[in-house]
Amino acid sequence: MRNKVLVTGGLGFIGSHTVVCLHEAGFEPIIVDNLSNSEISALQGIEELIGYSPAFYQSDISEFPFLSKIFEDHEISAVIHFAAFKAVGESVEFPLKYYKNNMGGLITVLETMKAYNVNSVVFSSSCTVYGEPNQVPVLEITPMKEAESPYGATKQMGERILRDNASWCNTQCLRYFNPIGAHPTGKIGELPLGIPNNLIPYLTQTVAGIRKELTVFGGDYDTTDGTCIRDYIHVMDLAEAHVKAVERLIGNQQLGSFEVFNIGTGKGSSVLEVINTFEEINQIKVPYKIGPRRSGDVVKVWAETNKVENILGWKAHRNLSNMMKDAWNWQLELAKKTSNT
Ligand code: NAD
Ligand code: WQD
Question: Which pTM was predicted?
């Protein structure tokens, strides 16, 4: 019998790719998502990729009775908890919305797990917990700075809540750097609703003609070419890290109840390197201009990956060219879907 893994937020960007990878690794994914930041079309993409329709519950994870129903229906071996709001700027404008959904959601997930004796969870954390680091690359033991946004605070608090529950709950806490790209088939990818804030969806929409021009936020930073540096990670590599984390939990291989890993490539890329790589691999120009700095931007951050490679046994295999190719392919597929509706 295949182990069942409950994936909260399983129709979202990272969740949908993880569902596919879980299936490929021999698990049975069970999805719960309230579609607050995703569309049901993601389920169709998943179905096409895995060849069947996985169990899907359209409900809010903050509702204990709804969540309990899933645990009644299925013997869950582990939970991957993606469901949360993630827009940094929006969290500054509507902090209560973020604290309510991200903290309330996590707490209800944990209460339900406890009630049903499920004690393994993978938590979506973020490199945002490090803030502007004093030193790069950042290690898992690098001290956190005070969160710059309510969103960042929800990730720090989420980690704290899980640490405080380590007596009964085993956690794999994954701190993602900058996830981008899409499934190479173009059947699933990131669905930015409204005007994107993040670099890659803004870039691909600009090249597709939906936006006029990409503004590079700042060209006078103290970096190799003056633009900010990030550790971009292919969403498929990231999804595979979740499979490793689940296997570690189910196989009882943890060294402690709360383990934290950086999930990045270990390599930083500047905004201009991203643009150049996109142009080169896709043979298409990106209309852009250098504009003013965006307030609150970290100048440079990338991951130290020794711990995750040596202990979790995971390493990113896809490079920036793969990410740019798959991101563009996804944008083209999206355009086809929209023109057909
Ligand atoms: P996403 O918005 O694409 O996916 C989240 C999914 O959760 C969405 O489908 C949304 O509808 C669902 N959801 C939200 N609140 C819910 C609720 N209360 N009940 C049920 N479903 C709910 O985001 P993503 O990029 O896939 O991110 C997944 C997780 O990873 C989030 O926790 C996010 O904070 C974290 N993360 C994301 C990034 C990134 O850059 N994408 C980086 C670091 C961490
Ligand atoms: C990347 C780079 C921008 C848009 C965010 C969250 C973080 C994490 C990942 C969840 C930066 C530059 C961007 C544009 C640009 N998410 N840029 N023009 O800010 O690194 O991280 O997503 O946990 O918490 O803050 O990602 O994609 O917005 O920016 O020049 O139109 O691209 O300045 O250097 P960021 P991003």
Answer: 0.98
